[in-house]
Amino acid sequence: MREHEVRVHRSDEEFARHEELAWKLAELATEDVPVDDDVAEMVVNRVLDNAAVSAASLLRAPVVAARSQALDHPVSRGGEGARIVGTTQTTSPEWAAWANGVAVRELDFHDTFLAAEYSHPGDNVPALVAVAQHVGCDGASLLRGIVTAYEVQVDLVRAISLHRHKIDHVAHLGPSVAAGLGTMLGLSTEVVHQAIGQALHTTTATRQSRKGAISTWKAYAPAFAGKVAVEAVDRAMRGQTSPAPVYEGEDGVVAWLLDGPDAVYRVPLPEPGEPRRAILDTYTKEHSAEYQAQAVIDLARRLHREHPALRDPANVERIVLHTSHHTHVVIGSGANDPQKYDPTASRETLDHSVPYIFAVALQDGGWHHVDSYARERAGRPDTVELWRKVSTVEDPEWTERYHASDPARKAFGARVEARLTDGTTVVDEIAVADAHPLGAHPFTREQYEAKLATLAAGVLTDAEVARFTDLARRLPELTAEEVRDLQVAAPEELLETVPLPAGLF
Question: Is 239 helix (H, G, I), strand (E, B) or coil?
Fold first, then answer.
């Protein structure tokens, strides 16, 4: 890897276009580099993972609304259209990217990469699949596009913090989708450069979508970035240009939205010809909760077994989770959001409340993507009493480990210190989630396929799960016709149990 320096340049300062970060990302996207076998295997895993969480969310209101919007848009004239998740119907690729992106994101249950910024790189996949289906790309081209998208997003996330300036993390997703589409479609560096600039310029929004009472927009934000990136690529292919230098300009993203005119970022990028392996540094979720809660759930279920007295709030004086700055201020008590302790809060808010998540996992000894968020579960009196005894504090060591570059030291866990009413103390800790590559039970292909089978139960037929699993396994070799079938479909009678909401379209 090499480091590319990013800093602000005055308008009257000579700054060659080939030194812009957007141009470097476009070069990355347009270089023909073979895909390593283990990288291809992981892409298959993540396609299965996305299908699993999409199936589980098909009847949820945000997904139904997004699907309804997509169904109201016909196939555009430039191709054969893209499949809408859960159905066999097609629409134009940007609307398929929208609907399918919401389905992937709704349950907060797919892959993650955490560094200077947060990300869910699997959010790239719906837009790329939609465009591949529309224009007739084969599996090998789709594979290469996904590999590029993961590489670009992970490289940006390693170096550039958005949340520090209250910018939502999807500002890294727009450029990565555009870059991935550039690879998949075989576009020129010039076209991809313009598309990346437009995608970034139109996907910078505030983090209020993940603050306080969190709304259904949390699921829509990455889908919006994917849809916008598809449209940006379309405009760039038609010869239209974008604001430049979009990162480094005097009135650009770095100068006014991030660290300011004196900022210097160093973005790690692959050397020319170097394999794109960033997807291997990402990790999926065993539990439907924000990633920084994954290890905490595993710690709680261990305490459930080993210290059953902690389940009863009458036995507990207080429970403190010592953890990283990010965990403390984003999903912990350091966010200063009273909603994180509110039994009537939305599912999206509870998903971002580690005190709630720890309390429920501690009492139940596990986590369920539906039952653990049920209104009656959140409102159970003994849970509310225990929940309000749980708090977080930042521990400098956990913060340092969160940002560590050494994978063996990098950690997203916590140390729990529980004080019981009899004066005894229980102390335990966990560094990474059990499903993490360095965890107690790392996910392999078997676990990804099991996750799909489990989450699809009652939603997809066994035959449909088997059909999709077979296609996903063969992704690198799929024909264009087979790629057009790379989407899960539920029985029509199941989808009809939830009415489609009416809107403008």
Answer: coil
Give me the amino acid identity at 283. Y
Beta strand extents in 378-491 (DSSP E only): 390-394, 414-420, 425-430
* Six-digit token string for 34: 């073979």
501, part of any domain: no
Structural domain ending residue among the three candidates 395, 430, 465: 430
Question: Domain boundary at 246, 281, 316, which?
Answer: 281
DSSP string over 39-96: HHHHHHHHHHHHHHHHHHHTTSHHHHHHHHHHHTSPPPTTSS-EEPTBSS-EE-HHHH
Overall average pLDDT of the 107-111 stretch:
94
Q: Nearest 5 degrees, angle CA 251-CA 254-CA 256?
A: 50
Q: What is the CATH number of the domain that holds 95?
A: 1.10.4100.10
Asked which of 114-123, 328-337, 402-411 is least confident by mean pLDDT, the reply is 402-411
Q: How many domains does the chain have?
A: 3
Report residue 107 as tokens. Answer: 């349950």
**Which comes out higher in pLDDT, residue 211 or 109?**
109
Tokens 């160093």 locate to 266
Say if residue 498 is exposed, middle or buried (CB neighbours under 10 Å; 0-12, 13-18, 19+): middle
With tokens 């239209």, the residue in question is: 240
Domain that holds residue 490: 445-495
Per-residue pLDDT for 344 more than 90?
Answer: yes
